[in-house]
Amino acid sequence: MCVSMKIKKTVCPFVLLFFTLFTTFAGQSDLKKNELKESSSQTLRLKQDINFRYSFHNDSIHRLNFRYPDGKKGIKPWIAPTLLISGGTALHFMDGARKNVRDFMRENFAYHGQIDDYAQYAPLAAVYALNALGIDGKNNFGNRTALVVKSFLLNGLITDRLKYWVNEKRPNGGIHSFPSGHTSKAFTLAHFMHKEYGELSPWYSVGAYACATTVGIMRVAKNAHWVSDVFMGAGIGILSTELVYLTHQYKWDNEHLKRFDIFPFQFGNQKGVTLVYNF
């Protein structure tokens, strides 16, 4: 009997200790299972949220892929703007050469007309005229319009900033000569026409660049710009359009165009139209 009591006294604490440890481990196991389930649930919700955001991102915000849609690569598109910008920069510091060109143009090709003010937009008018006649370019109306608007804005931003930063005097005594705004716009639109119709026929490109070059020559002959201004403006114009074509996402299809609404408005004595895009 004594032996039995001793065994019970010895075993009971071990049983109690074992039961306590088992309960503790079981509780921890259940807790870990719950934490694992919660973690899995959070991971699933995170994946769903990421998928939703990715889908929304693709549908509305359009990622920048920095590649042409036809997969073309290489440095060829960047050669002309690089040479023109480099040449314009070099000529800007060659005061003697600039003055020699100015004097030659004034003596032989002096010009005082206004044709250059309108000729700079000729390639733009030609692109939409060709499209109206049924000669389709590379892109549809929506993408084409988005491309030319972005090219025009980028070119204007670069050109205007440089004009104020450099603050070069014009040959006729005016201000903000470098680079030539007329020339940069003309080459922005000429390169736009080249990108849209150049593959259809090289003569479209020849005509566009000839028009832009004529505008640049007129600006020098008019004594409104130095030759360096024209070179720099031509390079910036081509570069602006090329950069926009490189980064454009080509998603302005007919479905996107249908989301635009135009409403007339009147605010006091002001009247106009409002353009609204429905997401």
Question: Can you lay out the helices and strands and say which pair or pack?
Answer:
Elements: H1 2-61, H2 76-92, H3 95-108, H4 115-119, H5 122-132, H6 141-166, H7 181-197, H8 202-221, H9 227-247, H10 254-257, E1 260-267, E2 270-277
Antiparallel strand pairs: 1-2
Helix pairs in contact: 2-9, 5-7, 6-7, 6-9, 7-8, 7-9, 8-9
Q: Can you tell me about this structure?
A:
By secondary structure, the chain is mostly helical. It has two domains: 1-42; 79-252, Phosphatidic acid phosphatase type 2/haloperoxidase (Vanadium-containing Chloroperoxidase, domain 1), CATH 1.20.144. The protein has ten helices and two strands, in the order ααααααααααββ. It holds the Pfam family PAP2. It comes from Mariniphaga sediminis. InterPro entries: PAP2/HPO, PAP2/HPO_sf.
